[in-house]
Amino acid sequence: MMTYGTKQHDESDPKPIRKSLWWIALAPSIWAIHFLACYLTVAIWCEKVSSYGSDRLLWLICIYSVVAIAGIAIVGWLSFRNFRRHDPPVPYDFDDPHDRTNFLGFTAFLLALLSGIATLFTMLVFLFVRSCD
Amino acid sequence: MDERAERLLKAWETPTGWRYWSAVNNSEVGLWYTLTAFVFFLFGGVLALIMRIQLAIPENNWLTPEQYNQVFTMHGSVMMFLFAVPILEAVSIMLLPQMMGARDLPFPRLSAYGFWCFLIGGIFVCGSLFFGVGPRGGWFMYPPMTTQYQTDVGPDIWLLGLSFIEVASIAAAVELIVGVLKCRPPGMRLNLIPLYAWYILVVAVMILFAFPPLIAGDLLMELERALDWPFFDADRGGDPMLWQHLFWIFGHPEVYIVFLPSIALVATIVPTFAKTPMAGYSWIVLAAVGTGFLSFGLWVHHMFTTGLPGMTIGIFSAASEAVAIPTGIQIFCFIATLLIGRVTKSVALLFVLAGLVTFIIGGLTGVMVAIAPFDYQAHDTYFIVGHLHYVLVGGTIFPLVAGFYYYYPFVTGKQLSERLGTVAFWLMLVGFNVTFFPMHLTGLIGMPRRVYTYPSGMGFEIPNMISSVGAGVLGLGFLVLLWDVLRPKGKQPLVPRNVWNAGTLEWSAQVPDKPWGIRSIPIISTRYPIWEQENLLADIDAGRFYLPDAEEGLRETLVTSTVDAEPMQCLRVPGPTFLTFFAALFTGGVFIFSTYHWWIAASISALLSFGAIVTWLWTGTALIPEKEEKYIGLGLMLPTYVSGPSAVGWWAMFITMLGDMTAFVSLVFGYFFYWTIDETFPPAQFDGRAVVGPGILWPLVSVGFVFAAWVTVLIARSTNNSNRSLLYYGSLIGSIALSVLSALAMFWGPFMRGMDPTHHVYSASVCVLVLWAVVHLVVGIVMLIYCGARRMAGRMDGIHNADIVNVTLFWHFLVLTIAITGLVISLFPLVA
Fold it and tell me: Cβ contact (<8 Å) for B281 and A93?
């Protein structure tokens, strides 16, 4: 017994952010900020400055969305590089202790995809519905 | 049993006799918590049956409208606040340490405190029904009905009683987050932790951001009811819509807060009965985290019919559709696992399958009502009642019953009857569908919710009668379950160890179980250690892993690092005490006496509660250990005392303050919300009087003082660490004086200019921010006095500095709170 020596878990090398738990929350956080920014902008726009028309609002939302999607894409790409050189992750993905970084990368990549889709959903609303009513 | 095991057993012994109730161990507290939540569930269920009897026939006058309103309000409130949320905390407190090979959660006394708060608050809220004074404004308590038209004590009982219980929920959230992140066994890296732990981590973080907005809303409504501050009074510039926003910012994530922990049980049960590891582990983590985030973008879909801008409705509708993606993904993972495994039949699995099917139906009607035009038609009808019960029963109740069957042997060593279980299963499944499916139709033909009766001849009779019969069958199913749980099992043999042949660590428990949690804390290198690690149970039992002994007779567990679970500290956790009970009793007194405006009793209770909590902290936290390092086995020495970000106490403070900031941001949101709806905010005049603000000078002076106080707190921390006592005490006194000045300046602006919080909502929303700021400054001052006393009493020094380090962390948040308050109330009116 004791095939798993203490060496396996007591190494404390400095970890870049991509190896930390926060990394997987980054893309959804960008979605959340984008969502909140859109919500607050619309709320204020419709109550205070709706006389300006919706075109300027649309530009504003487009700027938010481009920034957000670019951010999510960068997180997605960096996460993709974290796991792509490894075995295809099915069905028992990354269940070896040494796969921790690949796991974080893969999960962060999936979350970036989901966040990207959800951000696009939000943006599309402004293309289809252009009214405060 | 060898000597080491005997010592360990002695340290973890459960108190006996009447002292049993002083236990704080997770297995005891978790069990009490679960049973209490289950009793409240039965109570809520009886209320549901009463409603179904009333609605069985048209024009029924068995209940008065008044009674019916109380019954449906209490049914919703009990099921949500006294069952669904507490049961997740209960089950997690019981299971999580065992799943992670920990001896206990990091703050056992906090769990016990939370439990007693829950019990006292729950009895108080439920008891009101028997005196005919129960709340009757629906579980969401919409003003102005609950502020202007229900002036009895009912809404106060709801607001204060449930706020008190929300405190318990936040305490549990702190406990569970730190538990998952810091108390895993060595080697259990993030990609190996049980899926249950992932879900609980996500849910606990959600609680932290979802509950504070409701607490802020409760504060505003109670201020309106008790002191006439017009937050929701449209005549004085207020707006009932703010309550709806705050309530649903809590209320929608709440749905996922009760759903995810139950689905976590599914994720634990499915692999066991499919005899294979869960397929798509990362995808499930994606689903848990993704749902956790997206669920905060859905709240307005409860408010589609309130006349919000079309674009606002659109983005919330879109997010409500998007959340179906992660929700669906995890269900596909469960189905995939069942397909690739060799499934064995069991009652637990039957309930899992019933849960999945029911939840999918509820999810699909959810996608329907997420589309605004359909929602306009279905809103406030029985269609919604049908939808929400399919979601909650499918997503929460059925998986919980599955968990009940699955974990009953784990807790008691005996098994529930598979035969009775099958009977209960069919009764519940059939009863549930017969009750709730017709409600979709009743709703579509136009029957509104929350009516105590309905006229005949509108087509409502038959579906209502079917629903009532179904409710009886469903109730019968729960009776069978209850009988199975309560029937004497004295002659029934104990189950073998790991009765379901599961792979997760909690099943390493012996039968009958020992109070030590686990004999020795193993090194983990797989997701299903019992299946995949050779000799694991034998090595654990023989004490060949970490902490197999308790030489000092103290309760100890391991603290490990967040990502890779490297051992970092041997944590001493406190043992049995009645302090937490008394702390909860007196805290409860504050809320309960305030309900009846018995201010003197409430103040005495507050003092006693303060005394109990300080005694608890003083005698039980950040104790200086008798030795700096301890040998924990396998050639490893670990520190017994750490402070700063590697300490669990630091994390608890950080997490609590995140929740505190969320409540504060909700109040600030309120201020700006009124700005958006008012033509001129602040108005120059209202009701013939000038509307005055706090001015520019004094709030900014307050900010200046708090900055100076914060700098002196930093100096105090550094002088403590370098053991320069005189400078330390000097800077503490300095920072206390500066904080007092800051609080006075914050108060002085509104006071000197004669602000009247009952005049207009602007005055009220400034005063509530000032109130919040001053209360926080007072707490900050108390903490500084505590730190001074700790050092003076020799309970803190330059190395053992956790108290001052954690208080400094509080101060970082405090300075932010005061700065935001001061800048908003003084400068925003200039640009508004």
Answer: yes
- Digit-coded pLDDT (tens) for B310-351: 999 999 999 999 999 999 999 999 999 999 999 999 999 999
Cβ contacts of B660 within 8 Å, gap of 6 or more: B212, B813
> Which residues of chain A lie closer than 8 angstroms to B280, CB-CB?
90-91, 93
Q: Does B537 touch chain A (CB under 8 A)?
A: no
Look up tokens 């306009």; give the residue.
B376
User: Of B184, B193, B282, which to mutate for an interface test with A (greatest number of A Cβ within 10 Å)?
Assistant: B282
Q: Across the interface, do B191 and A104 touch by the CB < 8 Å criterion? A: yes
Beta-carbon count within 10 A of B354 CB:
23
Q: What is the pTM of this model?
A: 0.95
Alpha carbon B653 to chain centroid, angstroms: 16
Q: Is the pLDDT of residue A11 over 50?
A: no
Question: In terms of residues, how long is chain A?
Answer: 133
Question: pLDDT at position B679, please?
Answer: 82
A9 and B318: CB-CB below 8 Å? Answer: no
pLDDT at residue A1, rounded to an integer: 36
Give the Å distances, CA to CA, from B145 to B138, B150, B154, B156. 10, 6, 12, 13
CB contact set of B502 (below 8 Å; sequence gap of 6+): B271, B272, B530
C-alpha B797: how far from its chain's center? 35
Considering only the beta carbons, identify the residue of B281, B319, B336 that sits closest to A95.
B281
Q: Is B140 exposed, middle or buried (0-12, 13-18, 19+ CB in 10 A)?
A: middle
With beta carbons under 8 A apart, name residues in chain A contacting B341. none
Handedness of CA B196, B198, B204, B209 (dihedral sign): negative
Q: Give per-residue pLDDT as tens, A64-112.
A: 999 999 999 999 999 988 777 666 666 678 888 888 888 888 999 999 9
C-alpha A25/C-alpha A38 separation (Å) is 20
Which residues of chain B, if any, have pLDDT below 50?
none
CB distance from B485 to chain A under 8 Å? Answer: no
Surface-to-core class of residue B227, CB atoms within 10 Å of its CB (0-12 exposed, 13-18 middle, 19+ buried): exposed
Question: In Å, how far is A60's CA from the nearest CA of chain B?
Answer: 14
Closest CA of chain A from B333, distance in Å: 10
Comparing CA positions, the residue from B247, B231, B223 lying closest to residue B594 is B223
- Give CA–CA dist B637/B619, Å, rounded: 26
Measured distance CA(B205)–CA(B186) in Å, rounded = 23
Interface with chain B: mutation pick from A75, A114, A130, A131, highest number of B CBs within 10 Å: A114
pLDDT of residue B1: 72
pLDDT of residue A18: 65
> Nearest-CA distance from A62 to chain B in Å?
14
Residue B358: what pLDDT?
97
How many Cβ atoms from other residues are within 10 Å of residue B618's Cβ? 15
Which segments within B595-693 are labelled E, that is strand?
629-633, 636-639, 685-686, 689-690
> For B672, phi and psi rounded to 5 degrees?
-70, -30
C-beta separation of B259 from B395 below 8 A: yes
Partners of B162 in beta bridges: none
Q: Are B209 and B256 in contact (CB under 8 A)?
A: no
pLDDT of residue B710: 98
Which of the residues B308, B311, B325, B662 would you substitute to probe the A interface, choosing the one with the greatest number of A C-beta atoms within 10 Å? B311
B611 contact partners, CB below 8 Å, separation of at least 6: none
Contact B191 A25 (CB under 8 A): no
CB within 8 Å: A131 and B317: no
Q: Distance (Å) from the C-alpha of residue A67 to the closest C-alpha of chain B? A: 18
